[in-house]
Amino acid sequence: MLGKLFKLLFILAIIGFIALVGFAYVGPELGIDFAPTTQEIHLPVTLQGQ
């Protein structure tokens, strides 16, 4: 019984991984952009020294 449960979980994990990889490849074709938004940040830096 426990062996069948582990086998089922393993199969579901494999199917989930394949679905995730497939979505990553097909997502941009569907108009889904996975790129993060970029923003330029300027921070003043004060250096200690001479």
Automatic annotation (TrEMBL):
Descriptive protein name: Uncharacterized protein
Source species taxonomy: Bacteria, Pseudomonadati, Pseudomonadota, Alphaproteobacteria, Rhodobacterales
